[in-house]
Amino acid sequence: MAEKRKYYIRLQGRSVEVARDVYTAYYRMARRGRYLEERDLTHGKVLYSQLDSSETIGEDMIPDCDAIPVDEVVETILAVEKLQKCVAMLREAERELIDALFFSNGGDGMTEREYSMQSGIPQQTVNDRRQKILLKLRKMMEQ
Is there a domain that residue 2 lies in? Predict the structure, then answer.
């Protein structure tokens, strides 16, 4: 009678006897891992973790595609500052109307109808004044 062959794999520095299918699967998986590493070397693949140094982490070099570009943030800040200066140059009544329609109620503003009821000015007049003030602000912003 022929002796059955015994199969061993190394785990944590020890040889462990396993069944043939476990042995085959283990070494197939190990060979696949080596193949992928060899392929990466052949194609020049570099892992971000390989770029780690004492000052930086390689993963920090991955661009954040969802981040707003800095130049857009700066442009927005400059536009807001200019708008604030332009609004400050408006007459008191114009500033009150703009503040009420765009900045009151926690920044949501109020409707023309609400402002009309509060101030006693007809809604159509409120609308006309708003349009004129916005046109004036637009011209001031373009200068």
Answer: no
State the amino acid at position 40 in one-letter form: D
Residue 1: the pLDDT is 53
Same domain, 84 and 134: yes
Total of domains in the chain: 2
Collapsing DSSP states into helix, strand and coil, what is residue 121? coil
Contact (Cβ atoms closer than 8 angstroms) between residue 108 and residue 98: no
The SS3 assignment for 88 reads: helix
pLDDT at 46 (0 to 100): 77
Ranges of the chain with pLDDT below 70: 1-3
In angstroms, the CA 87 to CA 95 distance is 6
The whole domain housing 37 covers: 7-61
CATH of the domain at 78: 1.10.10.10
The answer to whether 7 touches 17, Cβ cutoff 8 Å, is: yes
Cα–Cα distance measured from residue 75 to residue 83, given in angstroms and rounded to the nearest whole number: 12
Same domain, 137 and 83: yes
What is the reported pTM? Answer: 0.54
